[in-house]
Amino acid sequence: QVHLVESGGGSAQAGGSLRLSCVASGYAFVASGYAFRGGWFRQAPGKEREGVAAIASDGNTIYADSVKGRFTISQDNAKNTLYLQMNSLKPQDTAMYYCAAVRNLAWGPLANRGYNYWGQGTQVTVSS
User: Fold this and answer.
1) Residues in contact with 85: Cβ distance below 8 Å, sequence separation at least 6, in sequence order
2) Strand runs (DSSP E) across 1-105, as ranges?
């Protein structure tokens, strides 16, 4: 059974930084091959959940346009942990952030249907 636990959310001022972590059990973010295996998503109140960033076993990354140049996704194989470093935060980054794992390859790495397992979420609130 795959279990994902996020942490690191909280409150920040606009222009500030936060780092989210996602520890996985029953699943490895890094494996042989080049497929995307883990991602971060977010859902703001009244909006649909959207893909933020994803990372492949070989370190290849993909980002939503809204966070390019500000957010960085990374992984630690030894700790089986996924990270999301968020810099230059904006009020519009306020959302519940979710870690995702176990790809559904019929969908892209930033698609909601692209993953089968989700964490419980961690709240990020950015004030102006």
Assistant:
1) 17, 19, 71, 72, 73, 74
2) 3-7, 10-13, 18-25, 36-43, 50-56, 61-63, 71-76, 81-86, 95-103
Cα-based distances in Å from 88 to 13, 56, 84, 111: 9, 24, 13, 24
Q: How confident is the model at residue 31 (pLDDT cuts 50, 70, 90)?
A: confident
Backbone angles phi, psi at 114, to 5 degrees: -80, -5
Q: Is the pLDDT of residue 60 over 80?
A: yes
Residue 56 DSSP SS3:
strand
Residue 101 in tokens: 């794992």
* Euclidean distance between CA atoms 30 and 55, whole angstroms: 9
Residue with tokens 């397992």: 117
Rounded Cα gap, residues 46 and 83, in angstroms: 26
How many of the other CB atoms lie within 10 Å of CB of 56? 20
What value does the mean pLDDT take over residues 23-35? Answer: 87
CB of 97 closer than 8 Å to CB of 9: yes
